[in-house]
Request: fold
Amino acid sequence: MSVRINPSILSADFVNMERDLGVIASADYAHVDVMDNHFVPNLTFGPQMVRRIQDVSPIPLDIHLMIENPERWAPAYAEIGAFSVTFHAESTSEPVALARRLRDIGARAGLAVKPGTPIEPYLELLDEFDQILVMTVEPGFGGQSFIADVMPKLDALAAANARLGRDVWLQVDGGITLDTIVIAAEHGANTFVAGSSVYNTPDRDDAILNLRHAAEKASGHHHAG
Ligand code: DX5
Ligand code: ZN
Reply:
């Protein structure tokens, strides 16, 4: 089973962003955390910076919008040419309309849920999305500990994928290490965001490869349905 490893550039050196994008070229996608200091108590960057990141990144961008009013901002990231744009379920009452807009522009559409948000209301919307992001920490900061309590959401999503014959990517983000990636993969996750565990390791290629091998091995132990 194929897995995706998406390093989070939240743990990069922001004044050496081009260099720090270059060192994750062996990963699948660069995970880009956009925070507005309203939806989460932290602030990163907006479309102007992400356009330059897109210009210089050796791998496609996986945008994670932790912002209010995604209807206003998300399409701009799709227009920049991002591979996928993921917005939070908690920040919109019209997730389907926004997902369709993103797909029309040519991006993959993703829906994210915070640890306390139930997944059941969204299972019936699975066809409208290319990726579901199950947050494994409270969004806002890197370097937090993995919350294993959310694993039943992955079980439910993996079962829904199997039932519908779909392959909506199941992404986890927050506290992903060589140990926790195994837990998430055993529950059906196949797309893994890792910030500090990649950037705080001297050899980033090594960190990415080790995460990939751990996830691939554990995926073999997951049986959907
Ligand atoms: C947190 C961000 C994550 C963050 C993960 O709100 O969405 O992408 O960078 O960092 P680690 O892997 O250090 O938990
Ligand atoms: Zn993220």
Summary: The first strand starts at residue 4 and ends at 7. Residues 9 and 32 are 6 Å apart (CA to CA).
